[in-house]
Write a structure and sequence with these properties.
Strand content: 15-25%
Largest sheet: 3 strands, antiparallel
Number of strands: 8
Low-confidence stretches: 1-6, 55-63, 72-85
Distance between the termini: 175 Å
Oligomer: single chain
Length: 202
């Protein structure tokens, strides 16, 4: 027999059949590329920013405040309040320091009249109490040998001689009553008859 079946070839397919799969593969590749390009363009595009809303219209117009629009009483009140708020009162404390004076009372020691009878025992056996550390000053009284006497301090005056000590000394002892007697005729603890060890206050 002759006809179309004879042109199909031994397998019954037309001679261009082998290129059909290749064409289908190219079509699929082109479709994939197109889809990729479409998605890429959609992702890279920046969204349209919000349009500037522009100035917002207000139904009420705002006018600057001037001194002519504010009452004078309001301005004076504001100024007065500001001045009062910024005023600070500082209290000054004055401290007065009173110096402390320490007074030292004189130390009074108990003594005994001694050596008034002299080395040979022929002396007066008393000592005179004088108004000043001098044998020429007024005599205030007398104390016998061995009598107790209180001594407050010592000063220098006229020299007095003791035959028992065989020395003279300018030192005089003063009693709490203000009377003076020659130190060579007194024995008292802590007192030296030849030098001032407990001076009187000036």
């Amino acid at each position: 027999m002759t006809g179309t079946t004879a042109d199909a070839g031994p397998s019954g397919r037309p001679p261009w059949w082998p290129i059909v799969p290749a064409l289908l593969g190219v079509a699929v590749v082109l479709l994939v590329v197109f889809v990729v390009l479409l998605v890429t363009d959609a992702g890279d595009g920046d969204p349209d920013p919000d349009p500037d809303p522009g100035p917002v219209a207000s139904g009420t117009a705002t006018s600057p405040v001037t001194s002519s629009s504010v009452p004078a009483s309001s301005i004076e009140s504001t100024t007065s309040t500001s001045v009062v708020a910024n005023t600070t009162t500082t209290a000054v404390r004055t401290t007065t320091t009173v110096p402390t004076t320490t007074s030292t009372a004189p130390v009074v020691v108990d003594g005994t009249v001694a050596r008034t009878c002299g080395a040979d025992g022929g002396g007066d056996c008393f000592v005179a109490l004088r108004a000043a550390p001098s044998a020429d000053s007024a005599e205030l009284g007398r104390l016998a040998e061995g009598a107790a006497v209180r001594i407050e301090c010592q000063v220098e005056g006229d020299a007095a001689y003791s035959s028992v000590l065989d020395r003279e000394s300018p030192v005089w002892a003063r009693t709490p009553t203000g009377a003076y007697l020659a130190a060579v005729f007194v024995d008292a603890p802590g007192l030296d008859p030849f030098r001032v060890t407990t001076p009187c206050a000036p």
